[in-house]
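Below is how a single chain appears once it has passed through the pipeline. First comes the sequence as given, then the structure the pipeline wrote out for it. We keep one example in the README because the format questions we get most often are answered faster by looking than by reading.
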Amino acid sequence: MKMKPVINIEILRRPASVISSRDLKSHVEQEIHNIGKIETGTNLTQFSNKVLTDNVEVIQICELDGENNLHEKLADLKNEFYPNDVVCRYHVYRMNREGAQLECIDVGDSGEEDQPVAHHWILPSSDFHGLWESLVYDCGVKENLLSYMEATMLFSDCGVDTNIISWNRLVLLYGPPGTGKTSLCKALAHKLAIRTGSRYTHGQLVEINSHSLFSKYFSESGKLVVKMFDKIKELIEDNNSLVCVLIDEVESLTRARESSMSGSEPSDLIRAVNSVLTQIDQMRKYPNVMILTTSNITEAIDVAFLDRADIKQYIGLPSYHAIFIIYMSCIKELIRVNIILSSPEMDSLTFGRLSLDQGEKEENRNVQRLLAVSRLSEGLSGRMLRKIPFLTHALFVKARTVSLDVFISAMESAVIRQKQDTK
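Resulting structure:
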């Protein structure tokens, strides 16, 4: 018997909502069946059910389980489903809107000097709402990482003996700057907090910049590391909380170890770095913690980190497949806010459902031109690609509203200028 595909549906409560999650899921299920067809990647904000209107901000129809290949997604126009043909997995959550809190630790001989060491969020956080959906990668990078984190939680909850099957709860994302590694880590933590809402009451994200691990008082660096991780362990002791630790720019640890080994850095520094590795090793015994790390170094990453990482994922520059989807999402947003004028030509084009193969055969001239701009944009980072529409408007459009035809022409000029500026 063929198993039905599973589709994930996320339900964001209103701040004042008090209805039980069980009852809310029941109302959402009824609403979904009343709609008739559901389409992945859509957000529902208008409801026929008053209970949902009073209690829900948005219902997000997310991905199908196992849907992890970008080219297959693009080539598959059938992303509409009848509720009876799929298994709907509902995730109810409430958003924290307080933003990041700065974590400081006493340093120096007097203990009176505070050094910022981390930023701390309660998850799910409004700071990261929509971030997951805005990140576009090839080859199922996002989905594979989320599956890894969910599997880690499952193995922990089931009490799998780590002496028999080993995992370290450590992910390493590496690649050139501007490819979204740090954003992906934050989006992963946010998404995991939503997906594990039935297991944990809330999540927490602690973002550490590895440069902050090293005090200007070299002899204090080891103590600083221990103090910081002691704070993290206090968070982990709450079994109802999922804790994600993000160590950004971990290559600074790599350089510190190499410099210390060669004798060019104080021995206290190598002890501090080793202390970080020891603390990471100690945290693997906790079932409710995940460690996410990033590095801009692609040539050589410290072997100590490589040995500990369960997943070592390279995050490269976007292919033109991904660039096309990024640009489509940007144009859709500018149409939504009436900066780009809508037209019957564009109304007939369903964003996010157009395959590249179809686009290359598409008679729509603007689609052809956007594909050409996407190819021209290869080599730009994801960070820069998201800026191109803004730079297009600021430097080449210079008008309140613009037609799609004119905007795509201006995009081409913006991409050419950006490439010239970075030579």
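Residues 69-78 have pLDDT under 50 and may be disordered.

See the next section for the split statistics.
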